[in-house]
Amino acid sequence: MPIEVLLVEDSPGDVRLTQEAFRDANRSVRLHVASDGVEAMAFLRHEGAYVNAPRPDLILLDLNLPKMDGREVLAQIKEDDTLKTIPTVVLTTSDAEADISKSYQLQANCYLNKPVELDAFEALVKSINDFWLTKCKLPQHKQNQ
Q: For the chain, first and last CA: distance in Å?
């Protein structure tokens, strides 16, 4: 069974690094990418081009996004009864206490700082895979729920 992961990230470099790190860590991960908050919500709500999008098993969410920032995306996910059970990991360069606090107030499942060094970034993605996609029991769902 493939593991569906939605990466909400506007940096093409970070997208590429995440793709490569998951390719090394876990070949069963199918990484879907939304480059802004509006696109992420369309994917999650099966709107427009995303009518047949799979329900993610895990969401990796950057905070600083164009069109709709990650805080608003997180709020909308956690306010939606059909989406709120999807584990949502904030993965961002911000280490501001206000961002950390706000993310947990909005019910983020985890807050991780995105390292700038390549090896550290790859190690972080591997640890996300090891914990969230290997050790954790994730909620089961029906296809296209």
A: 17
pLDDT of residue 140: 73
Tell me, yes or no, whether 145 lies in a domain. no
Which neighbouring-strand residues pair with 33? Answer: 7
pLDDT recorded at residue 1: 79
Query: What average pLDDT does the segment 61-70 reach?
Result: 93
Residue 10 lies in a domain: yes
d(CA 18, CA 29): 11
Helix axes 70-79, 37-44, angle to 10 degrees: 20
Instruction: Say if residues 43 and 50 touch (Cβ distance below 8 Å).
Output: yes
CATH number at residue 90: 3.40.50.2300
Over residues 67-81, mean pLDDT: 94
**Mean pLDDT within 70-75:** 95
Burial of 119 (0-12, 13-18, 19+ CB in 10 A): exposed
Domain assignment of residue 43, given as a range: 3-135
Question: What is the number of structural domains in the chain?
Answer: 1
